[in-house]
């Protein structure tokens, strides 16, 4: 699937990017009816918990993909965004998706924020997690308001996600491990502020409220 139809497709609109922290289910997800919604990893499980729909599906980690490749390949809703490297994985099932290009080490948002890509096809380096990867995609789609929901960026053994996750990646992470995401947030905050993009975390239990603007879903909708 080509990127071009999505370039600036949502210019001036708002979107909601969902993480998978258990607190996601404490929000009234029915409020997202009619909104543009991104999910990450197994976020499609939220449909079983009241999420009306989703439009875009972002997966970043190859270990995660390898564990859930069959399940992911059977999904028939939402446009998928996968790293180009997935094509070389024995786990790849051939599902249609938009390729996301990683360009390491030249583009590394944490250490070299001045190398923020000018166009989608430039690719980019690590963003810390799938949610911030989705933020990059949303940026190039032209959204002027980007809201995060169900995003804590910290691992809690046995309760990192609202769904049961037994992936290889999940088993490797220690209890209390902090996602690399918070290290990258200031780069996103500064870039989006310069370009007039509203960037807000609506997760009530987000532990890094000093890093970015926070609010609640009820206040925004």
How would you summarize this macromolecular structure in one to three sentences?
With 221 residues, this protein is of the alpha/beta class. Helix content is 21%, strand content 14%. It has one domain (4-220): sialyltransferase cstii, chain A (Alpha-Beta Complex).
Question: Descriptors for this entry?
Answer:
221 residues; alpha/beta; sialyltransferase cstii, chain A; eight-stranded parallel sheet; 5 helices; 8 strands; 21% helix; 14% strand
Number of helices: 5
* Beta-strand residue fraction: 5-15%
Low-confidence stretches: none
Largest sheet: 8 strands, parallel
Looking at CATH, which topology would you report? sialyltransferase cstii, chain A
Mean pLDDT: 90
The CATH superfamily is: Alpha-2,3-sialyltransferase
Radius of gyration: 16 Å
Q: What's the helical proportion of residues?
A: 10-25%
Looking at the overall shape, the CATH architecture is Alpha-Beta Complex
Biggest sheet: strands side by side, in what order?
5-4-3-2-1-6-7-8
At the first level of CATH, what is the class? Alpha Beta
Total beta-strand segments: 8
**Computed structural class:** alpha/beta
- N to C succession of SSEs: EEEHEEHEHHEEH
Principal-axis shape? globular
Regarding quaternary structure, what we see is single chain
Explained architecture:
This protein has 221 residues and is α/β, with parallel strands linked by helices. It has one domain: Alpha-2,3-sialyltransferase (sialyltransferase cstii, chain A). The chain has five helices and eight strands, in the order E-E-E-H-E-E-H-E-H-H-E-E-H. The chain has helices spanning 62-73, 130-141, 168-172, 181-194, 217-220; strands spanning 14-18, 36-40, 56-58, 79-83, 98-100, 145-149, 198-201, 213-214. It has an eight-stranded parallel beta sheet with strand order 5-4-3-2-1-6-7-8, covered by helices on one side. Strand 3 (56-58), helix 1 (62-73) and strand 4 form a beta-alpha-beta unit. It starts with 13 loop residues before the first strand and ends with a helix.
């Amino acid at each position: 699937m080509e990127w071009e139809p999505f370039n600036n497709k949502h210019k001036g609109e708002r979107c909601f990017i969902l993480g998978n922290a258990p607190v996601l289910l404490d929000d009234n997800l029915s409020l997202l009816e009619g909104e543009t919604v991104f999910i990450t990893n197994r976020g499609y499980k939220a449909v079983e918990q009241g999420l009306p729909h989703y439009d875009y599906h972002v997966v970043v980690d190859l270990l995660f993909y390898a564990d859930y490749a069959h399940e992911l390949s059977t999904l028939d809703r939402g446009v998928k965004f996968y790293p180009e490297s997935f094509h070389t994985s024995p786990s790849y099932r051939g599902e249609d998706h938009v390729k996301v290009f990683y360009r390491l080490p030249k583009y590394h948002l944490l250490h070299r924020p001045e190398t923020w890509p000018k166009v989608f096809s430039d690719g980019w380096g690590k963003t810390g997690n799938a949610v911030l990867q989705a933020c990059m995609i949303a940026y190039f789609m032209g959204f002027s308001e980007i809201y995060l929901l169900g995003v804590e960026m910290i691992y809690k053994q046995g309760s990192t996600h609202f769904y049961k996750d037994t992936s290889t990646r999940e088993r490797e992470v220690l209890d209390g491990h902090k996602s690399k995401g918070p290290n990258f947030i200031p780069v996103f905050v500064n870039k989006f502020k310069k370009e007039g993009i509203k960037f807000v975390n609506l997760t009530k239990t987000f532990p890094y409220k000093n890093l970015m603007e926070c609010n609640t879903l009820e206040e925004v909708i």
